[in-house]
Design brief:
Length: about 130
């Protein structure tokens, strides 16, 4: 049992790929890191890409384990991002976020977010619900 989440983030200025991985024994660290990231964002301090990814990881693990469909997971992430102005500011710099998540023995889920910068209305594309 393990959590593997890979992010591929593209903006006009950079492309970043990051893999976040937790084994079952250290999964409580994900909860701790999520709590720290969320608290920092809620205090209206400047959030960064790392905090955004931790928030994504936490919600993706929870939703995938609850067998939520990909569209539901995307909606949850968008709802979470839109709550925080500092996160919205980060997203204005980003053109595309692709996320691949492999949780436990559940088939891999892939999500793709393409952002229209003017009004923060993402164009959602389901790459593949199940592989």
């Amino acid at each position: 049992m393990m959590i593997q989440i890979k992010f591929h983030i593209q903006s006009n200025n950079f492309t970043k790929t990051k893999k976040i991985q937790f084994c079952k024994n250290s999964e409580k660290n994900l909860d701790t890191l999520y709590g720290i990231a969320k608290e920092t964002i809620e205090r209206k301090e400047k959030s960064d890409l790392e905090q955004l990814m931790m928030v994504c990881c936490f919600h993706m693990v929870k939703e995938i384990r609850e067998n939520t469909i990909v569209g539901g997971i995307q909606d949850k992430l968008l709802e979470e991002w839109s709550k925080h102005q500092s996160t919205v500011q980060i997203l204005k710099e980003i053109r595309n976020i692709s996320i691949e998540a492999k949780i436990d023995n559940i088939p891999k889920k892939s999500l793709d977010f393409s952002f229209k910068h003017k009004d923060f209305v993402p164009n959602l594309t389901e790459l593949s619900a199940l592989r």
